[in-house]
Amino acid sequence: MDTLIPVLVAVPLAGAAVLLLGGRRLDGFGHWLGVLASTASFAVGLVLFFHMLGRPVASRAEHITLFTWVPVGGFQAPVGFQLDQLSIVFVLLITGVGSLIHLYSVGYMAHDERRRRFFGYLNLFLAAMLLLVLADNYLLLYVGWEGVGLASYLLIGFWQHKPSAATAAKKAFLVNRVGDMGLSIAIMLMFSTYGSFTFAQVFPNAGGASKATLTGIGLMLLLAACGKSAQVPLQSWLGDAMEGPTPVSALIHAATMVTAGVYLITRSSAIFNLAPTAQLATVCVGAVTLIFGAIVGCAKDDIKKALAGSTMSQIGYMIMAAGLGPIGYVFAIMHLVTHGFFKAGLFLGAGSVMHGMNDEVDMRKYGGLRKYMPLTFVTFGLGYLAIIGFPFLSGYFSKDKIIEAAFAKGGTEGWILGCAALVGAGITAFYMTRVMLMTFFGEKRWVPDAEGHEPHPHEGPKTMGIPMVVLAFGSVFAGGLFAINSCFVNWLTPVTGHEEGNSPIGSLTLSLITLVIIAAGAVVAWLMYGRKPVPAVPPLGSLITRAARRDLLQDDFNHVVLVGGGEHLTRFLVYLDAKGFDGTVNGIAALVGGISGRARKLQNGYVRSYALSMFGGALVLVATTLLMRSM
Amino acid sequence: MNPVNYLYLAALLFTIGATGVLVRRNAIVLFMCVELMLNASNLALVTFSRLHGNLDGQIIAFFTMVVAAAEVVVGLAIIVSVFRTRHSASVDDSNLMKL
């Protein structure tokens, strides 16, 4: 069966190649080709999954080396794939949710003349992400990592005729480059320490390195994860990435891209377990981001940007869980999968709303849509209940486990992290209820678009409806299925390891506290947006609201500190170059020039002045002779 | 008469000649001043010859006279030809090679 593993990557890659190189003759059916490539990859994934399920636990991981990519002396860079319990979870999530998003895009992008190219990019995105999770060494993982960056750049900037989209794509790419630097440094450190970058050789020998090296590798991997997963301080690209078409946002936020950081940390658990400092940094990043993203999500009126803040916050939960060590890894992945379902569902729902409302994204211009778009309302509503952690829906099982694991960390640290996670859950309930109320409840606040068309909210075609329904089912049942007999935990334990944490608060009590906080968040949102009519023009708001509308000043911070700092540095260097180096060189030249200019005056062409200098010279000679004699 | 007085005269004549070379512009006058300097040095040579009691100085003075005569011939020819072409005997006007 191991020969099937490369097929997973090859099919969407071939799809991308055919769609992008095939030209206009594929315009008529290219999108279905894209869906087919993605679905075929999902089918192969399912076959491999059931095959893996049938084998005993010890021999579930499969491995295949295709060829050696860079054979230079002692340096070997193999192209090898490794399919274990962790990879297959990602494969199924990426191809499953990815296929649904492909199907949705058929309807959503129906009127776009570049639809074929769009599907080519989507396939490329899947292929890169699959390469990332299937690679058996860090160098090949890096190839997938960069491929994901490239595909996200192409897709975020897909509507490149809009300057804002082109800028957002560039921003996403550049911010990701910072993270990529971290990954490349981590790989170099690994190679110089262990002499290899394959998982099989690095992880068993991880303990052989010094503490400082392990911490360095861990921190660099964390930096890489921050870039791809939009964690503080590299989070600024995620909000702008909403400039891409909505299916792209769904793909980036649910199945690909932002999950790469969580995968990287979980995959490198052998290194993180030995580097407590790096783990501490990871939980800090996660905790800060989960609050940060939640606050941003509360203030945004753009439905997609509110959901983007939510993603940032939920990925923060995952990164925090991954930083907790063996008590958290499986829950990070579990939340990642359930989040994949409900966040994809929410984004597709948001896309459906935009589709019906002439591409309006401002929630203040929605309202009362539940009567007009019942299917979207129900699927979006189920996703909403799942994300806030409504009992016995997906989010309830995964998020509560993370909160519990955070408390189980122990000591002051555990209390701080646990409380941050609880507060985050409350804010999540607040902003998601806000999105729900502003979009589907209340009175109509619709306004005609720029060309004067009144919006006529309607459901999209079936290709858009089916994926939303499937994802809604996932949002409802996935968490519960995973929790039966702790099957998800047992499935992943051989790869990531798992320890039961000892939470200072009982599991049931904690669930109750969480529920109370979630209910409080939802009620506050109802008091603010459900009971009173929503003003069409946003009120000025408190200082923190205004800051949150500007993404908590992240761009301003980057602009002042990084851009400003860089400009000052370059100006200083230009000054140093112009005045220091050029000044010295020019000064010497001017000195020589000045001296020769003066010396030239001696050659004035008048015989008597030559004679004078001759007499003067003779005089000096005689005087010197006399002087020497007399001494 | 004390022969040192001749040396004083020679120095005086040489100074007059040198001053003339430095301050005058007319090529003929310049030339005459050069001759004056040559003759002043001849006078000094002869005086030294007398003072030291050997003939070396007088012989050198003869050589000087011969060389000066040859130099006068060449120099005057140059001055005459310059005057013919440029209608001027001033040394400052001959500046064709100046930048």
Polypeptide structure, described:
- The complex is a heterodimer of chains A (631) and B (99).
- By secondary structure, chain A is mainly α.
- Chain A contains 24 helices and two strands.
- Chain A has a two-stranded antiparallel ribbon with strand order 1-2.
- Chain A starts with a helix and ends with a helix.
- Chain B is mainly alpha-helical.
- Chain B has three helices and no strands.
- In chain B, helix 2 runs antiparallel to helix 3.
- At the A-B interface, helix 24 of A face helix 1 of B.
Radius of gyration of chain B: 17 Å
Structural class of chain B: mainly alpha
Oligomeric organization of the protein chains? heterodimer
Query: Could you give the order of the helices and strands of chain A?
Result: HHEEHHHHHHHHHHHHHHHHHHHHHH
The percentage helix of chain B is: over 70%
Number of helices of chain B: 3
Main sheet characteristics of chain A: 2 strands, antiparallel
Rg of chain A is 31 Å
Low-confidence stretches of chain A: none
Give the helix/strand layout.
The complex is a heterodimer of chains A (631) and B (99).
Chain A: H1 5-21, H2 30-53, E1 62-72, E2 75-83, H3 85-108, H4 115-134, H5 138-156, H6 163-194, H7 199-202, H8 211-229, H9 236-240, H10 246-255, H11 258-267, H12 269-272, H13 276-299, H14 303-323, H15 329-356, H16 374-388, H17 394-408, H18 411-440, H19 462-483, H20 487-496, H21 507-530, H22 543-549, H23 554-600, H24 607-630
Antiparallel strand pairs in A: 1-2
Chain B: H1 4-23, H2 27-52, H3 56-86
Helix pairs in contact in B: 1-2, 2-3
Brief summary:
Chain A is mainly alpha-helical and 631 residues long. Chain A is built from 24 helices and two strands. The N and C termini of chain B lie far apart (54 Å).
